[in-house]
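Whiteboard transcription, Tuesday session. T.W. wrote the structure tokens on the left side:
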């Protein structure tokens, strides 16, 4: 008997001890908007699937689906998921949802993508979607992690964008990438909240600041604490939160639930 929700792993890449990405086959019927998430998982020992929310990291035009994942040592799903190999089955519930979509934002000029940790995943999708570049004159990707190695998946993806036959020309002159670390020395450091409020990101990138609700839009994805603090910063600059049902100046999605592992 076949399970209609089973897909097959096609590629696995380990980025650090705690981060990996993998690609799976895409059900022919699955349609999604870049930035959305789905439930994926593995069969549990008792036969009941262990399912978790995952942002789709690949763009909506891709033939396969990509995911970017944490490895939680005792995590019910990722303690096992981190060992998947090409050819292995993955459960995928094909019901994409989420707020990090262009439809939930009012038209703007400059789009800020604000992510910590695996919160980069939805932006890995959106950065590779032509719609992002057609709808915005400037895109600023701020990604912050504790250590430099945790930025590598995003750094490589941004580097590859420029050489991408589909996106490369659209991206030229529009993308500003601002990766920072907070617990390891690097060329750029500091929390996203601090770099926005101090104006450091504008100075470092040579962009006009501060944030302006007339031209700036933002998409936010990180821990609950990060999301809450960024929302306060964006509110302070006069931006208003939006949703699928009522587009606004910024939208927020959780990268994970919980305080720590
Ligand atoms: C909307 C949404 C989208 C998500 N997208 C992704 C994604 O694209 N990639 C991804 O790796 N996870 C994502 N997650 C988290 C994911 O659903 C699982 O929590 C994660 O895979 C760990 O599962 P687990 O069963 O091993 O451990 P869980 O029991 O689910 O988590 C154990 C603890 O680990 C910590 N933790 C869980 N996930 C993360 C994380 N991503 N980063 C840092 N700490 C974490 C939390 O403190 C949590 O309490 C998303 C969560 C939500 C709500
Ligand atoms: N990443 C690791 O190396 C590591 C190792 C062991 C355990 N863990 C556990 O895994 C969990 C998730 O780790 P994570 O590193 O993916 O996520 P995280 O703790 O949310 O940190 C990711 C980045 O976001 C920043 N940040 C956190 N809260 C913020 C806020 N309120 N406002 C602005 N910036 C904020 C952090 O800066 P700061 O550094 O200033 O906090 C860090 O640069 C942690 O709770 C931790 O217990 C992680």
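and on the right, the sequence the group agreed on:
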């Amino acid at each position: 008997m076949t399970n209609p929700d089973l897909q097959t792993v096609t590629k696995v890449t380990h980025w650090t001890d705690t981060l990996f990405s993998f690609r799976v086959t895409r059900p022919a019927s699955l349609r999604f908007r870049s930035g959305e998430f789905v439930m994926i998982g593995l069969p549990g020992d008792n036969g009941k699937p262990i399912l978790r929310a995952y942002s789709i990291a690949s763009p909506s035009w891709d033939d396969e689906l990509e995911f970017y994942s944490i490895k939680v040592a005792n995590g019910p799903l990722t303690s096992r998921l981190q060992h998947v190999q090409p050819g292995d089955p993955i459960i995928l519930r094909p019901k994409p949802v989420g707020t990090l979509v262009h439809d939930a934002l009012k038209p703007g000029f400059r789009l800020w993508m604000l992510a910590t940790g695996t919160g980069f995943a939805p932006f890995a999708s959106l950065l590779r979607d032509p719609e992002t570049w057609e709808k915005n004159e400037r895109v600023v990707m701020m990604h912050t992690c504790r250590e430099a190695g945790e930025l590598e998946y995003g750094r490589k993806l941004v580097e590859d964008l420029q050489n991408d036959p589909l996106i490369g020309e659209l991206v030229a002159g529009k993308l500003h990438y601002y990766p920072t670390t907070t617990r390891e020395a690097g060329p750029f450091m500091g929390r996203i909240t601090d770099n926005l409020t101090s104006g450091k990101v504008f100075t470092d990138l040579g962009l006009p600041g501060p944030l302006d609700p007339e031209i700036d839009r933002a998409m936010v994805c990180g821990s609950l604490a990060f999301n809450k603090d960024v929302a306060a910063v964006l509110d302070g600059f006069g931006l208003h939160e939006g949703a699928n049902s009522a587009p606004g100046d910024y939208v927020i999605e959780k990268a994970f639930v919980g305080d720590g592992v």
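Someone added at the bottom: Residues 74 and 112 are 34 Å apart (CA to CA).
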